[in-house]
Amino acid sequence: MNNFTWFIPTIVMFGKGTATKIGDQIAGIGAKKIMLIMGGQSVFKSGAYEQVAESLKRNKIEFIEMTGVKSNPRVEFVREAIARLAVTPVDVIVPVGGGSVYDTAKAIAAGAKYNGDIWDLVKGKASISKTLPVMGVVTASATSSEMNNIAVISNHETEEKLSFTSPLLYPRLSIIDPELQYTLPERQTVAGGIDAMAHVMERYFEGNEIPELLWDQHEVFLRSMLRCIPRLRANPRDYDARAEYAWTAALCHNGSLSCGLKNRGDFSSHKLGHALSLFYDTPHGDSLSIMMPAWIEYVSKFNPLPLERFTKNIMGLDELRSTFRSWGAPVTLREIKVPECDIERIVDNVAKLGPIGTFKILEREDIIEITKISW
Amino acid sequence: MNNFTWFIPTIVMFGKGTATKIGDQIAGIGAKKIMLIMGGQSVFKSGAYEQVAESLKRNKIEFIEMTGVKSNPRVEFVREAIARLAVTPVDVIVPVGGGSVYDTAKAIAAGAKYNGDIWDLVKGKASISKTLPVMGVVTASATSSEMNNIAVISNHETEEKLSFTSPLLYPRLSIIDPELQYTLPERQTVAGGIDAMAHVMERYFEGNEIPELLWDQHEVFLRSMLRCIPRLRANPRDYDARAEYAWTAALCHNGSLSCGLKNRGDFSSHKLGHALSLFYDTPHGDSLSIMMPAWIEYVSKFNPLPLERFTKNIMGLDELRSTFRSWGAPVTLREIKVPECDIERIVDNVAKLGPIGTFKILEREDIIEITKISW
Predict the structure, then answer these.
(1) Which of B177, B304, B310, B333 has its CA 20 to 30 A from that of A167?
(2) In the listed set A180, A204, A237, which residue is the last one of a domain according to the structure?
């Protein structure tokens, strides 16, 4: 077991009716004015907006709104919000949405306190020394952004989708009300679940020696998602399945499944997937249902042990692919209409990150092989 | 799945050599003077004292020492330390030890900022509004006091062993170096492991509907202890087993295994065991290896389902008892030489807490039955 530091200072309020408490919590830290960050129409459909706005008004908290965060959130949006805050400062950034909205809120919270362009912070050219507090409401569970210190932002100008981290990026508060996820499209529930599973798999297939305790924990969360997704496809309003799904997703990438690992996960699947999101705006979950099995297939040739354990305790790789497919998720590049002639472009984008991964260090030729498998 | 709040603000530094960082961490919050809280000789034997003292000196941190915390720590010790702090104030309370030392440190940290007798806070007659920060080093894992907001203190004058909690009782920092546990007596390793298992069992056998995710998590930690204890009996210097044991113990009672439960565990076994510790100074772990199986045997008559699942996925109740016995832990009151005529006295002490438990609400007559089984 390797040394580690465990630190997750976020307060999580979880369960039915909890979104109505957001105003009380924000007022509790003395804040008077906040910026709401949201995506599209889903916050209205789910009722989240109404609950949050009512709670803020009841607590006499002024709010300004920034709507329109898309999946694979973009740096331009972050810059606009920061520019707005320069004119109208606020005390707290309040994401109401899923991982993209949370990531955007974190980037805004850091950028608002940085005297320069936010992309410097994403690129690690400058370090985060101060942020506005982030206190949010989760309406789509997947990335665990609500409980971790990571934000992923895309820059189309530079053709980069990058993640950045800081201990200051943990939200101060995240409210997870599973009922707000009843109205999510089935595709999003599936993609979010696959993303959460991928967060486990990146660790399960890290390639180093994994403490038995950790592997056992990983398998609990994989089984949980494999149990919840079919239940939610059958009945999107199954509260217990929504709740288990939401809590599982939060725990899969808050760092607790890395404790004792040599690295904190491999993350090649994510990096391969980021290229798809960047070029084709492929939803993050879809990029993973395609790239993750291809990556596992390729790297397991060099060390078959983790896949043998996975096959014995969870399922084989073919069964994993057919499970994803049965949920309506793509498992090949062809299915999402990536032309074969684009493989080179994808490989170039990933390869420019330098050799990636921990299970097997992936050079350009390895990335070509994986991309071919995924095609 | 029931609503819950998750909040564990403690920073945990885990692994080899981490105790040598305590001074840097304390200096990092600007503290100049601290009070060290310790038990007996074990901190010298393990090398913990030397490492901590050296680290404090290197960081020019002055320290005063209070040694002599015993298992089932007493309020008199806490009062003495608080009286001493009134004369010589410090910035941080630094436990170096196991659960008893940590619990004592927490009580001192709260009492030092309370204008009245510490027993008022334990009894809940007054609430904790401020504490000194607690930053410690774990040298015996078991209770998860290093990562939770609970302290258990005994008062022999009033014949009470009581736990008290507050969000302010989380340590600010806990350093867990598994190597410092190499020199623990085998009996303590066994008792600590059983205590950690009991923290899981109190939840597993809460009696309410348990979300599948939680039950699965519980089983992972039970299996972990069942795997580590025999390895450590065979080789107390098995680093990976020490590490897995220590991290498992920390996670078993930091609240994360209660998320979504109706209650936060039953805790009848603990309350039954507290009476033994109070009257016979029975080590906490021993009190549990005796009382827990008796309690499960009794309450399972009223709802056999959890025991059926436990039997299928972990082991039967007879096997649990014989496992404890094979580790040298007592499983009956007779073995620890409690005379049969004392049963009444034990029952009286537990019954005065009022009806206890959640799996089955235990009245006086139930407590008599369980105590008889345990004899």
Answers:
(1) B177
(2) A180
